[in-house]
Amino acid sequence: MNILHTETLTLWGGQQNRVLKEATGLSKKGHKVIIVCHRGSILAEKARKAGIKVYELNMVKQAHLINVPKLINIIKKEKIDIVSTHSSVDSWAGGISARFSGRRLVRFRHNLYAIGRDPLTKFIYVLPHGYIAISSAVRDILTAHGI
Question: Are 6 and 71 in contact (CB under 8 A)?
Answer without folding.
Answer: yes
